[in-house]
Amino acid sequence: MSLPYWSRWPVLLSGVLLATAGAAFADDDDDDNARIRPLNHAAWRQECSTCHIAYPPQLLPAVSWRAIMKGLDQHFGTDASLDPQQQADILRFLEANAGGEGRSRRGEPLLRITETRWFVHEHSEELPKDIWSRPSIKSAANCNACHTAAERDDYSEHTLRIPK
Amino acid sequence: MRFAFITVLLVLSFSTHAETPADFQKQFAAQAQQENPAFTGFSAEQGQRFYANTHGKEWSCASCHSQNPKAIGQHIATGKTLAPLAPAASPERFTRPDKVEKWFKRNCNEVLGRACTAQEKGDVLSYLLSVR
Fold first, then answer.
1. CB contact under 8 A, B110 and A51
2. Which of A7, A119, A164, B42 could form a disulfide with B122 if both were Cys (CB 3.0 to 4.6 A apart)?
C-alpha cells in the first residue's frame, strides 16, 4: 500500500464504526441501532436492488462478497451477470464496507446472509413456524416483506409488520 | 467540483442514450433482416405466445412479469415486486440500451437457455407495445 499516511484514517474510522455496528447486531433487545448505517453507491443500489433489496454490505464478510460477485451468471439459480467494469466497481464497494463474520464450519465463504450466526440469532425467537413459507413472504431473502423500510436500511421494530 | 463534473458527464451520457421503444423495434428489425433474409416483420400475437409460454425450462417471461404485462410483477424466487413491463404502464421501459441489452441477455438465458433471436425480441416488444 502506497497510500499517504493521512488517507488511511477514513479506513480506520470505518473499521471502528463497523465494529460498533456489529456489537449492536449482537444485542437482541436493543433496537436503537437497527438502522444499518446507510451507504450510497449508485451502481450497487441500482444493480443489486432489481430482483431483491440491495442487501447491506455489512452483513457479509469480504470473502463472501468476492465469491458471490465471481458467480453472478449463476446467482442462486438465476443469471445476474453484469458487465465486467460494473462488476469490479460494485465489488470494490462491497469489500470496502464488508462485515466481519468469518467462514462456514467447512471453511468455505458463506454465500447467504440467512446462514450467518447474526441472522439466525435475530430470527430464531417469537417467529411463527410457517413464516418463510407464507405466500406473502415467500423467502427469507425477501426482507421487505416484513421489514417494510428495509429499502432505506431501516430494520427497526417500528417498521416491522409480519404479513399473514 | 469533481463531483459536479462527474454528475454532468453522467447526465450527458444518460441523455444521449435515451431512446424510445420504437427505436429498439427498428434495431431489432435490422438485426432480424440480417439473421434471416426471409424476415417479413414482427407479430404481436407471436410475441404474446412467446411471453406466456415456457421454452423447455422452468420459467416463462410471465413467471415474474405477470400474465398481464400492465400489472405489477413479482420475482418468482425472491418475491420482490417488479414494475410492469408494458411501456403503457411503465414509461421508462425500453428507453435505455444498456438495460434492454442486460435484461434480454439474462432473461433469455433464464427462460430459453440461450440468447434470443432478434425476431423473438421484436415479437415480444410488439406484443408489449400492443398492450394499451
1. no
2. B42
